[in-house]
Amino acid sequence: NHSVGILQHPDGTVLKQLQPPPRGPREQEFYNKVYDSDCCDSILLELREYLPKYFGVWSPPTAPNDTYLKLEDVTRKFNKPCIMDVKIGQKSYDPYASAEKIQQQVSKYPLMEEIGFLVLGMRVYHVSSDSYETQNQHYGRSLTKETVKDGISKFFHSGYCLRKDVVAASIQKVEKILEWFEGQTQLNFYASSLLFVYEGSCQATTVRLGDVTLAEKRRVPKGLLSGGDVLEYNNNINVINSTENGKIEASVNKGLSKFYALHKKACSKRHHSQLSLKVENSEQDNVWKTSTCITQEHLNGNVLPQLEKVFYHVPAETKESANVEVRMIDFAHVFPSNTKDEGYIYGLKNLITVLQNILDN
């Protein structure tokens, strides 16, 4: 469209070209106000938690009249970032928009007022094919009340399974932003978005389940340990020693065939009594030991199809474990107010409902 998109600066920030007046100066003024070093307004100070960090403006030496907003790159810490941009609110035009502008915006997505949000685009990493699937704004505009749930759930699908841990973590983040909006009457936001980012690769992610810590290093579907505890599991797995406080770490490096062989052997030695995984860690080696936990019936027959049934989804209990960012972006249409931003609140609540439905169903 003959315009400059988001650029990456060598220092790890991103550069967003300032839009023409009045939009660009309005967005710059918003960032300057929120990130003013003398700011002591608790509402604005809390708002910083939900925005990309702001580092002022920047101009290239070769084009000093070109101005860019210098912002935190929210995706930088991720190996395979999955990204979704969702415009929030019942109106994508501000109170000063002309009749022509209003008509133009409404015609783009007539359901905006009813649904309260619009998916502007997404990029999802599929572990199964080691590739990205991309959807643009036309995809979002095609979604109806009946299809919006499935349309958004596509963002949380790895190619193998639905990332329920990411959905749950996203709900928590959006709820925090909703709490902020419920408590402020200073600002109204129009045509502003939420940026969702999560780690698509399973490498170097850590999952905490109660007292169990699991280190996930490859594509890891989910397995059942005992008493409802969940064990991250793949064709290669090893459980290594618990830490001093009793937490268990699981990492991927032992063959599954050996895993079964060890268990069957142990089961035979113990006259088919109940088994469990106990852990022993030494500098020399890591050894499987058995106690009482996994019953013999789990080892009988073709166990893989049975395991796949329970491995398919990550349970909601892992919601705090997922590496997820949800940030507010795009502030060219932010205006002072003395009332709650009901349109934005409406959109957040509807989005939370859709995410919760994805999680529950």
UniProtKB/TrEMBL annotation:
User: Which keywords appear in this protein's UniProt record, sorted alphabetically?
Assistant: ATP-binding, Kinase, Nucleotide-binding, Transferase
GO terms for cellular component:
cytoplasm; nucleus
Tell me, which GO biological process terms does this entry list? Answer: inositol phosphate biosynthetic process
Under catalytic activity, the entry for this protein gives: 1D-myo-inositol 1,4,5-trisphosphate + 2 ATP = 1D-myo-inositol 1,3,4,5,6-pentakisphosphate + 2 ADP + 2 H(+); 1D-myo-inositol 1,3,4,6-tetrakisphosphate + ATP = 1D-myo-inositol 1,3,4,5,6-pentakisphosphate + ADP + H(+)
Q: What is its EC number?
A: 2.7.-.-
Its family remark reads: Belongs to the inositol phosphokinase (IPK) family.
Task: Tell me what this protein is called.
Answer: Kinase
Q: Which InterPro entries match?
A: IPK (IPR005522), IPK_sf (IPR038286)
Listed Pfam families:
IPK (PF03770)
- A molecular-function term among this protein's GO annotations: ATP binding
The record's listing under Gene3D superfamilies reads:
Inositol polyphosphate kinase (3.30.470.160)
Source superkingdom: Eukaryota
Regions crossing the membrane? none
